[in-house]
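Q: How do we represent a protein-ligand complex in a form that can be generated token by token?
A: Start from the inputs.
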Amino acid sequence: MADDLNDVTDDDEVSESSEALIAVHWRDEGYYPPPPEFVAQANASDPAIREQFTEDKFPDSFIAYADLLDWYKRWDTVLDTSNAPFWKWFVGGELNASYNCVDRHLADKANKAALIWVPEPESEAHQAITYRELYVRVNEFAAVLKDLGLKAGDRITFHMPMVPELPVAMLAAARLGIVHSQVFAGFSGTAAGHRIADSGSTVLVTIDGYYRSGELLDHKVKADEAVEAAAKEGQHVDKVLVFRRYPGQYSAKTPMVEGRDVFVDDLLAAHKAELVEPVHLQATDPLFLMYTSGTTGRPKGCQHSVGGYLSYVAGTTKYYQDVHPDDTYWCLADIGWITGHSYIVYGPLALGTTSVIYEGTPNYPDAARPWRIAVQLGVNIFHTSPTSIRMLRKVGPDEPAKYDYHFKHMTTVGEPIEPEVWKWYYESVGKGEAVIVDTWWQTETGGFLGSTLPGIDPAKPGSCGPAALGILPAILDEDGNEVPAGSGKAGNIVIRNPWPGVFQTIWGQPERFVSTYYAKYNKDPKSTDWHDWPYFAGDGATQAADGYFRILGRVDDVINVAGHRLGTKELESVALTVNEVAEAAAVPVVDDVRGRVVEMYVSLKPGFAPSAEIEAKVRDAIVKDIGKIARPKNIWIVPDMPKTRSGKIMRRVIAATSNFTDTGDITTLANPEIVEKIRHQVQSAKHAKGEVPRELSEAELNEIKSFGAE
Ligand code: WTA
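Then emit the structure tokens for the protein with WTA bound:
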């Protein structure tokens, strides 16, 4: 996906947006039952499966997921709640994720493709990597890491694009118990540097270059920026391991740094065919960190476990992605996000299927590229985001019909999908033959929380469906009272129980883990009973009478751009690094392709006049510190910000201005007169550029109206 279709971050502190401010948008849609041919082959086709996961069977119900894996030693305790809410799953159990995704398939799938890598240039042939070859490559890279002195519990940062070296590196780290932290390649070097520092990594793994939209990008330059940014925060990087897009030939212009930078192909040559025993890890040991940024500016390293996480992604891949070993499965997400970790690498490989990895943007060189790949590789399971679906629909609505591929199953993930877009996905991309799952979940949750079971439940456009197996959600109001189940009334969705895929903590910030996700509805901080610790997801939702949930979007100050979460505070703190800027406020603007885009308002310190240079400085700072996805659509330099009497910037008033909606009550502002000035300035400029949005839906209106509300 294009970088700007592919970025994220998120946030944290909980705003007080009230349940009344969230409302339902789309009208209720009809049902789409699975075709009989799908049901006949589905991993879950008997509704009785739900009975194995009812509340009275919790937590032992999840043993069924753990049993999909090979364990060196079985656990003593399924769920230990003694240090609530730091849940421990499968305590006493020992296993290795690399062994489960690679070694154990050698017996019967050695010559089957584990990964098929599709380079962006169509002139380059795809590469099929068998389980046997994957085994050899993972072992060799593990030998390299071991040689560097890395061992279980150490952290390593990857800043890698969509090339097969990335899953190889992840599985090599997992083999040794080294905790990997993969940073999305579209993020800037500085963003990678902050994450290196936060995790305390001493080794960075990168590549010289990769293709995006026809261009071979110099990626190595970002490694230099990352090392420098980490050093500013006191973290020294000893080694930068540089893969080469074309082994033996250096594709970047940025010079290698003597003593620090090493070509991986040179290192591998010294470890040909070397084998490294997988380390027997505790189920509760960390497998990886996945960063998502927060309102405070400091990113949150979501820590996922070896045993619980791998069990949960294996189980959900089996039942919700309906993966069978002989399927060819293609998830278009980037491995730099949680979707790629769970549903490109760990879930599919744990089940021994073939997982496709595509290097480039979906519409390169044209809008039919995905469909040609599907024909060429025989893809039968397809997984992507509403943003990509909207984009492919916009640029090539009739393309899928021209290609003879057949999907049995498709996924949408990351943001709410409009019913019209869902229907195009169903009819045009799926040709009316494929089931669709709309999977609701988060970086923090490891795997799906809400989705239809595709061989059992009919899909309903715009709704993710019921809770996933063993997940016990509820919708609560601000005071913690339960909104009656099935009432269609909106509130905050929570998960009442722990599940194996839930993250263990925020790396280095355990208090923030508790305060952001569990404190809101906990009445007794000393309780060790899981019933007292509902997980607060930060999303608004409704539940219809049929039990299906509809996710309405974030209830905190998060801007979901192309399915990825950007924290307002993070954006604003970058804008404030520009010398002339006194105040900054980031708000969402409704966008027909990307869902939301960022708009940034800044006011200047005394003595500075607005100029295009200052705008450019703010824009460049954001792209440099965060990445292209965060690039604001507009930067408005305003004389002052609308503020409350206590001095808080009223983001909802600014958001309304940018979206041409009603600014609501402004009588409580300290400076109400500024609102009209800003409105005139911004809206006349937008009119001039032809940037007036369409009429907004009720949910969109409510999101804007309550954005950052007190
Ligand atoms: C949103 C991505 C509606 C939601 C896996 C959530 C969704 C945030 C859906 C997590 C969906 C995710 N329907 N909204 N199917 N899936 N979201 O951490 O607001 O990048 O909280 O994880 O995306 O984004 P994240």
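The first strand starts at residue 77 and ends at 80. The chain has 20 helices and 30 strands.
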